[in-house]
């Protein structure tokens, strides 16, 4: 009985707080905009610092232990770009897991991803042309070697039609697909390619809306810094003190509680605490290997849920890739449009989304160095989720290494067959 009353009371307060937060949003946006215009505001200070981050902070620590997966886990699908950014007859370059990719659409409109490095003299295929020689092919801008979507060379244009090269030459191709408004690539082992929705369990749920809203930006630090930042709920009390979303923690940060539920490749987090009116708030999200956080649907802010990825570009760079699709109803479309329009990169305007939610994070995670040296940290009780998620990443990395050790001899043979051209 008491539990039921307690649940009801809690749900009532959560709902009241949600309404309050929405009401605060406009005020907070305005305040954030004003404060980011002030020359010495924290937000400006941090942005200025991160823009000119000292070069020594961009170096990786020496002797990184080999159980730390700082190069990124490979046996997972990663988002490459929003699908709308990949047009027909267009080549896009993208860097993922330390490798440069050229991405394009084949004759059926399906995305293809090849190594961006031409096997002839190593220039960038992405500077060349798509569909020049025949539909669904990429031609190198230097001497015209041409590859289809599987990486097979189909012509060496500078050598003429009788060249024997095409039969013997391949470049590296990676599985790619378009689903849920996003182009995905898989750069894992050659043995089996997992199904995207099994591999990344929240994707179907979080990206099912018909009006996708994307923002993505690159930070000069390792993806592990960014993931730790997501697991570190306590920083909201300080770094995000000006956001309406974090108003409660900002005032009552000392009393906030954190509950974790760990299992498989996922850590579920819930933060709770008294809000600014003395009642209770709760917010929660899931963190999943290889490095994204998932917010369950939370209308009207995220009607279809949201995903924030920390995508490893290379050892010293992370792409924070955010997707929050909206449904087709008019008010959702309007909200998606407003969020997209106020995005700082589009109009160059300061706004709540960037300056409160993202700007401080960038300065904090870059301040830790290219890769925070876990051996030198002094973790506290607020870092329990950080610790748990690191353990999961290490375990997943160990599994990958064991698998790689088993298949490596065969993979080496396949690579040698695939990429080398007989002279
Ligand atoms: S470098 Fe690409 S064809 Fe020569
Ligand atoms: Fe943050």
Which blocks of ≥5 consecutive residues have pLDDT under 50? 247-253, 343-352
What fold name stands as the CATH topology of the largest domain?
Naphthalene 1,2-dioxygenase Alpha Subunit, Chain A, domain 1
**Small molecules in complex:** FE2/S2 (inorganic) cluster, fe (ii) ion
Shape: globular
Number of strands: 18
Share of helix, binned: 25-40%
Major beta sheet summary? 7 strands, antiparallel
User: N-to-C terminal Cα separation, in Å?
Assistant: 81 Å
Question: Could you tell me the radius of gyration in angstroms?
Answer: 24 Å
Mean pLDDT: 82
Structural domain tally:
2
Question: Helix tally?
Answer: 12
Describe the structure.
With 423 residues, this protein is an alpha+beta fold. It folds into two domains: 16-55 and 197-397, Naphthalene 1,2-dioxygenase Alpha Subunit, Chain A, domain 1; 83-187, Rieske [2Fe-2S] iron-sulphur domain (Rieske Iron-sulfur Protein, 3-layer Sandwich), CATH 2.102.10. 34% of the residues lie in helices and 23% in strands. The protein contains twelve helices and 18 strands. The strands form four sheets. A seven-stranded antiparallel sheet has the order 12-18-17-16-15-14-13. It has a four-stranded antiparallel sheet with strand order 2-3-4-9, with no helix packed on it. It is globular and about 80 Å long. Mean pLDDT is 82; it is low at 247-253 and 343-352. The chain binds FE2/S2 (inorganic) cluster (FES) and fe (ii) ion (FE2). Residues 118, 120-121, 123, 140, 142-145 line the site of FE2/S2 (inorganic) cluster (FES).
């Amino acid at each position: 009985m008491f539990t039921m009353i307690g649940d009801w009371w809690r749900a009532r307060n959560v709902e009241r707080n949600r309404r309050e937060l929405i009401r605060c949003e406009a005020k907070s946006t305005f305040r954030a905009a004003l404060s980011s215009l002030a020359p010495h505001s924290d937000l400006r200070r941090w942005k200025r610092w991160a823009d000119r981050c000292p070069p020594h902070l961009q170096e990786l620590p020496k002797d990184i232990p080999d159980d730390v997966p700082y190069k990124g886990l490979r046996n997972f699908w990663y988002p490459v770009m929003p699908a709308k950014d990949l047009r027909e007859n267009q080549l896009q370059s993208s860097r993922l897991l330390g490798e440069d990719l050229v991405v394009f659409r084949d004759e059926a409109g399906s995305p293809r991803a090849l190594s961006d490095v031409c096997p002839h003299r190593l220039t960038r295929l992405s500077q060349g042309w798509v569909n020049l020689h025949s539909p669904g092919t990429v031609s190198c801008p230097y001497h015209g070697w041409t590859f289809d979507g599987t990486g097979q060379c189909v012509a060496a244009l500078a050598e003429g039609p009788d060249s024997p090269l095409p039969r013997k030459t391949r470049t590296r191709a990676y599985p790619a697909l378009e689903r849920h408004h996003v182009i995905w690539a898989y750069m894992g082992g050659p043995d089996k390619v997992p199904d995207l929705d099994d591999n990344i369990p929240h994707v179907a749920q979080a990206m099912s809306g018909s009006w996708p809203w994307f923002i993505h930006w690159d930070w000069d630090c390792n993806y592990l810094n960014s993931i730790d930042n997501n697991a570190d709920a306590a920083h909201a009390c300080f770094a995000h003190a000006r956001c309406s979303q974090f108003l409660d923690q900002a005032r009552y940060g000392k009393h906030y509680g954190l509950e974790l539920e760990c299992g498989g490749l996922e850590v579920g987090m819930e933060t709770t605490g008294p809000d600014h009116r003395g009642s209770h708030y709760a917010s929660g999200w899931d963190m999943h290997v290889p490095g994204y956080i998932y917010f369950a649907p939370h209308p009207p802010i995220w009607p279809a849920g949201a995903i924030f990825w920390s995508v490893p570009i290379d050892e010293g760079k992370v792409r924070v890739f955010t997707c929050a699709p909206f449904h087709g109803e008019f008010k959702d479309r309007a909200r998606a449009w407003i969020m997209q329009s106020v995005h700082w990169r589009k109009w160059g305007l300061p706004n709540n989304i960037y300056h409160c939610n993202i700007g401080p994070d960038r300065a904090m995670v870059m301040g830790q160095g290219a890769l925070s040296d876990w051996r030198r940290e002094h973790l506290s009780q607020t870092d329990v989720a950080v610790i748990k998620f690191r353990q999961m990443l290490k375990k997943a990395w160990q599994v990958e290494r064991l698998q790689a050790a088993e298949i490596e001899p065969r993979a080496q043979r396949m690579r040698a067959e695939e990429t080398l051209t007989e002279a």
